[in-house]
Specification:
The structure holds two protein chains of two kinds. Chain A is mainly α. Chain A is built from five helices and no strands. Chain A has a single domain, classed as ACP-like (Non-ribosomal Peptide Synthetase Peptidyl Carrier Protein, Chain A, Orthogonal Bundle). Chain B folds into two domains: 348 residues, Rossmann fold, CATH 3.40.50.12780; 84 residues, ANL, C-terminal domain (GMP Synthetase, Chain A, domain 3, 2-Layer Sandwich). Classes of the chains: A mainly alpha, B alpha/beta.
């Protein structure tokens, strides 16, 4: 499975979003992506990519798009 | 009538996260000129968030003898309508949208002692309210100020909603001593929160167990927060491991970690664990607050005197609220509890007099600090999904819902999350062929799982 599929899969399993919905997902606007949802998203991303996110990156992870940029710092290319 | 909050202080009452500073003098003026059309002893629903208009409205109500029901501005429209139908308020004031809706012009016949109304059980549909008096709020506020040693130099940052008793008690206690409230709608999961925290030199915050789990996740201990003095915890029992971790960190950094216990029915707080005992009494909710006392009672109603013997926790104090309201007529009622609250929590007391919660008599869970009644949740689901049987059980922050219809799992999960306004991750829904029941048709919860 490619990284994009994996990334989309996390948004689907955590928030129940389709690929189209996931691509426009934003913290606090997207249904269920509140503080609690954010923790779950981070945990699931860490598990899916076998990484450990830095606190600053957890705070900066505000959207689907920003998340991709952050993950690239961990060597995950899309 | 004397103002409930004197607001006679020289300093700054509020700093908002857009940088606005409001002095106590200006804040007092805002509360005095707030909605002049609303008369004393009106019943008002306040739809609030952690913003300045909400705080002004709340304080204006208490100072002018207007009785507010505090509700989250994000409240489900259907649930709000249920509250309106049940209590027929004079006004609904939305402090986020800035709108006022006149609903009823009738005198609501509110009891003169009644100061404030709060909801009890999250948003499972029950319109049951807790009736708090001016005496209740004053007593609890003075007690908390005493044991937390609060003064005008405090700068608490908001982490909890003010329609939630714990969040409101932070507001009350700090306005009481002339401290500065740092008001923000941002959560600890947002960079803006920490920027505001550091820029404004926050001295304290409060958190429910889940807040501390999130802080741990954010590697809070690596963060340099020299202004921070005190972290308080309530809204459910924190995991002992997390209690220990935060107590150790606080001890090392010269800060206070204060575990507390309370209920809306006791205004806010009933116990606190003195911070200098946080390390040697891990898992304890501490001792009764100044002016209050506890008893433990066994199943026969006899007092338990022995150490380490579980019984139901009973609290006595002036902060024990008047009682509940379930209909408009109840708002005319006076004190029904006479200073005694049977908490519904099971506890034990160690040989040193410290209390430990060991269980609960009633069927509810604390989810992210919110009380969610399991029977009400069942009724809510059955009402919306006819022809299906269902049972709710589980542990704090994790409700397990059993359904007899496997096809409804996803729908029910989404429905419960939306109705309770709690994150969907707290709800696990599984299907079961038949619910275990006894001869009289009652669900046997112990046989689930």
């Amino acid at each position: 499975m490619g990284n994009l599929e994996k990334y989309l899969g996390v948004f689907e399993s955590v928030f129940g979003l389709s690929a189209a919905e996931a691509e426009t997902a934003v913290f606090k606007s997207t249904r269920q992506w509140d503080s609690v949802g954010h923790v779950n998203l981070m945990t699931n991303i860490e598990e899916a990519f076998d990484i450990s996110l830095e606190p600053d990156d957890i705070l900066d992870f505000r959207s689907f798009a920003m998340g991709k940029e952050i993950l690239s710092k961990y060597g995950i290319a899309f | 009538m004397d103002r409930f909050f004197s607001l006679q202080f020289p300093g700054v009452a509020v700093v908002t996260d857009d940088g606005r500073e409001v002095s106590y003098a200006d804040f007092r003026e805002l509360t005095e000129t707030w909605r002049p059309e609303i008369a004393p002893r009106s019943l008002v629903f306040l739809l609030v968030s952690n913003n300045l208009p909400s705080l002004v409205a709340y304080v204006a109500c208490l100072n002018r003898g207007i009785v507010p029901l505090m509700l989250d501005a994000q409240i489900d429209a259907g649930l709000l309508q249920r509250f309106v139908d049940t209590y027929s308020p004079n006004y609904v004031v939305n402090c986020v949208a800035g709108t006022v809706t006149a609903v009823s012009a009738e005198d609501r016949g509110l009891h003169p002692d009644l100061a404030l109304l709060l909801t009890t059980s999250g948003s499972t549909g029950s319109p049951k309210l807790v009736r708090q008096s001016y005496v209740n709020i004053r007593a609890n506020t003075e007690s908390i100020v005493e044991y937390l040693k609060l003064d005008a130099t405090e700068r608490p940052i908001t982490t909890l909603p003010m329609n939630y008793t714990y969040g409101l008690s932070i507001v009350n206690t700090h306005l009481w001593v002339g401290a500065t409230l740092l008001l923000t709608g941002a959560s600890i999961m947002q960079r803006e929160f920490w920027t505001f925290f550091t820029a404004q030199g926050a001295t304290s915050f409060g958190g429910v167990p889940y807040t501390y789990e999130m802080l741990d996740r954010l590697m809070f201990f690596r963060r340099k927060l020299p202004s921070l003095r005190t972290m308080t915890q309530a809204g459910g029992k924190i995991l002992p491991e997390l209690h220990l971790k935060f107590a150790e960190h606080a001890a090392k950094e010269g800060k206070n970690f204060v575990v507390m216990y309370g209920q809306c029915e006791a205004t806010a707080r009933m116990s606190y664990l003195p911070p200098d005992r946080a390390l040697d009494k891990v898992g304890s909710m501490g001792v009764a607050i100044p002016g209050g006392r506890f008893e433990l009672v066994d199943a026969d109603g006899s007092l338990i005197e022995e150490a380490d013997t579980p019984g139901e926790l009973v609290y006595y104090g002036k902060n024990v609220t008047l009682g509940y309201a379930e209909c408009a007529a109840d708002l005319a009622k006076g004190d029904e509890r006479d200073g005694k609250l049977v908490t519904g929590d099971m506890a034990k007391r160690d040989a040193d007099g410290f209390y430990f919660i060991v269980g609960r008599k009633k069927r509810f869970l604390k989810i992210f600090g919110n009380r969610v009644n399991l029977d009400e949740t069942e009724r809510m689901i059955k009402g919306a999904f006819l022809g299906m049987d269902c049972a709710c059980a589980g542990t704090d922050d994790h409700m397990k819902i059993y359904l007899t219809d496997a096809d409804a799992i996803e729908k029910v999960r989404t429905f419960v999350a939306e109705k309770t306004h709690l994150n969907i991750s707290a709800f696990e829904v599984v299907s079961i062929d038949v619910l275990p029941k006894n001869a009289s048709g009652k669900t046997l919860y112990s046989e689930l799982n």
